[in-house]
What does this fold into?
Amino acid sequence: MTRPSLTLSIAAEPAEVGFDPASTALVIIDMQRDFLEPGGFGETLGNDVSLLAAAVPPTQAVLAACRDAGLLVVHTREGHRPDLSDAPPAKLERGEPTARIGAPGPMGRILIRGEPGHAIVAALAPLPGEVVIDKPGKGAFYATDLGAILAERGIATLLVCGVTTEVCVHTTIREGNDRGYRCVALADCCASYFPEFHRVGLAMIAAQGGIFGWVSASGPVVEALRAHA
Ligand code: TIU
It folds into this structure.
């Protein structure tokens, strides 16, 4: 059954953007313990992981509104197979982390699928039946079946939340934009270990007339969906 199309409008930069809930997915990028909690990948890279906590409550609000409105919800997790066969040496060797990907840590092996640190934080845990995409790269489309799942559901617009703004959120929005999706970053639902990168990363998306997307926030999405309910 196809639902009638309905265009909701939300305030955004560089201009208001419309979306039809039936052809819109909420995509929550890598809200994993490995990035948000002490002892995981983010901390081994030298970051203050507490900087990401602010994005959780607004993402919870958007997630609740999208679930209630019946939108497709997609969660992603960055991580690798236990044998690291999907982790390119260039990724494993890079930088000087205190512990490399695959090394043991307080939440299990760093950034490895199935380990406690790889899980999505409890506040944003996927419900049974929601799409969970395990991705080896920074972008959610690279080496995953996300594109096939979105195509099968007739999705045209992506509301994007998650961490970090300038790494996996940016890469996913760039990938989605090139694949023809209308990508809307929700500013307060994204976060970075570098507040300046968060601010500039969002500005980059909306600059030049929205060169690869739009930037909105949790409030307009929640209001639009609640008004439509
Ligand atoms: N380090 C950092 O900012 N981000 C990542 O390594 N992955 C994601 O953004 N998910």
The two ends are 19 Å apart (CA to CA). Residues 195-210 form the longest helix (16 residues).
